[in-house]
Amino acid sequence: MQRMTDERDSIRGAGTRSVPDHIGSAQCTAAGDDDKPMAIVVMGVCGSGKSVLGRELADSLEWPFVEGDDFHPPENVGKMSAGVPLDDDDRWGWLRSLAARMDDETSGGGSVVMACSALKRSYRDILRRPRTVFVYLDGSRDELERRLAARTGHFMKKEMLDSQLATLEPPDDGERHLRIDAGWGLTVHEEARLVLDGLGLSS
Ligand SMILES: Nc1ncnc2c1ncn2[C@@H]1O[C@H](COP(=O)(O)OP(=O)(O)O)[C@@H](O)[C@H]1O
Ligand SMILES: O=C(O)[C@H](O)[C@@H](O)[C@H](O)[C@H](O)COP(=O)(O)O
After folding, report:
1. What is the pLDDT of residues 37-52, one digit of tens each?
2. Is the predicted pLDDT of residue 201 greater than 60, yes or no?
3. From ligand 2's centre to the CA of 69, what distance in Å?
4. pLDDT tens for each residue of 115-170
5. Ligand at shortest distance from the CA of 181
6. Ligand 2 centroid to 70 CA: how many Å?
7. Rounded CA gap, 44 and 52, in Å?
8. What's the DSSP call for residue 31?
9. Domains assigned to the chain
10. If you average pLDDT over residues 63-74, what whole number do you get?
């Protein structure tokens, strides 16, 4: 936790730089209804920045944060640590446990931010609720590899990026989502600002 806080501080920037005008909200649009979201799922391939942005959003909103990696059974972690990509059968139970946690957090009117790769539409269907919004961390292979290479001490090694990109089905216009691109060069603070503005959750 402390390590993550320090890591975010170092990529936060001063926190005062404005988001460049050309990015604005045009590339950060939400499809779907206007209801305020109750669950934000930060999705994307390994190393795209889900955990860091998810924690930033949760801190800003004062919502609980759920780290999807923590819900993998030991067999899945063993596979990924050995460089073997997961298959659908490895993922269904994991996704169902995340959906159950989401429902626990939101059933009494609460809200939650979750980091989960949610690479395929069918995976997102398990997490999708009327007030779920997906924040999709996109980027060129080079940008994503740079982020992944900067991370140490994680079971997911950068060699897994190719299989993750091959599995990825980006959210389409029918899915309520926002897209953030690593190539925009934003600090995590700026990314969070775009998301909160885009979702009408800025205070
Ligand atoms: N906006 C950003 N700018 C630069 N580096 C970032 C940004 N967001 C995340 N990173 C870095 O990318 C790496 C992967 O981030 P992480 O949140 O662990 O990804 P994921 O949870 O998607 O696997 C980390 O080293 C993190 O510090
Ligand atoms: O479905 C999967 O193949 C995994 O869930 C994977 O997509 C996820 O990325 C891992 O949990 C690694 O963790 P990071 O995404 O944090 O690298």
Report:
1. 899 999 999 999 999 9
2. yes
3. 6
4. 999 999 999 999 999 899 999 999 999 999 998 888 888 877 778 899 999 999 99
5. 1
6. 10
7. 12
8. -
9. 35-194 (3.40.50.300)
10. 97
Q: Is the pLDDT of residue 17 over 70?
A: no
The token pair that represents 179 in the structure block? 């897209």
Distance CA 101, CA 107 (A): 10
Task: Say which residue the tokens 């940008």 belong to.
Answer: 143
Report how far residue 11's alpha carbon sits from residue 15's, in angstroms, rounded to the nearest whole number. Answer: 10
ipTM of the prediction:
0.92
Q: Is the pLDDT of residue 2 over 50?
A: no
The answer, yes or no, to whether any atom of ligand 2 lies below 6 A from the CB of 48, is no
| Cβ-based burial of 192 (10 A; exposed 0-12, middle 13-18, buried ≥19) | buried
Q: Is 95 in the pocket of ligand 1 (CB under 6 A)?
A: no
Distance 116 CA to ligand 2 centre (A): 7
Report d(CA 131, CA 40) in Å as an integer. 9
CA distance linking residue 153 with residue 26, whole number of Å: 36
The two structure tokens encoding residue 183: 């190539």
| pLDDT tens figures, 31-40 | 455 678 899 9
| pLDDT score of 111 more than 50 | yes
Instruction: Give the pair of three-digit tokens for residue 184.
Output: 């925009």
| Rounded-to-integer distance, Cα 60 and Cα 43, Å | 18
